[in-house]
Design brief:
Low-confidence stretches: none
Shape: elongated
Mean pLDDT: 92
Helix content: over 70%
Largest sheet: none
Strand content: under 5%
Length: about 120
């Protein structure tokens, strides 16, 4: 019988096996055997990761939109690539929001910071 302590050790020694074991325990309803502390940590980390990906993609999108709008010297050589990046980032943002619609509210919260970050990137040219 797997104990919560044994599962915690498994987390430290073999993360992938820990995930497989945790999924099986959840499916079987063996909640008392779960490594709750690490499970909470991993679920929280997943949420932060989703938010970070959205922010990163938004920064890249804004950066390339700004380049297309305001860059004069490099625009002729780079406009096609910038447009392709804009299309791809919009697509990936749409996929992320389709998978996690609650992240739409995050866009409003992070937009100004992402815009400022994109401007800093452009300003460092």
């Amino acid at each position: 019988m797997l104990t919560s302590d044994t599962n915690k050790t498994l987390y430290e020694q073999d993360f992938y096996l820990w995930i497989q074991t945790t999924v099986k325990l959840l499916q079987e309803g063996k909640l008392e055997q779960l490594d709750i502390d690490n499970l909470i940590e991993e679920i929280d980390s997943m949420g932060r990761s989703e938010k970070k990906e959205l922010k990163t993609r938004l920064i890249v999108l804004i950066e390339h939109l700004l380049k297309l709008q305001y860059s004069t010297e490099e625009k002729d050589d780079n406009a096609r690539g910038w447009r392709n990046t804009v299309v791809e980032q919009r697509r990936q943002i749409a996929y992320t929001l389709a998978d996690s619609p609650s992240l739409k509210s995050v866009l409003n919260d992070v937009f100004l910071d992402c815009y400022a970050d994109a401007r800093k990137i452009i300003g460092s040219w």
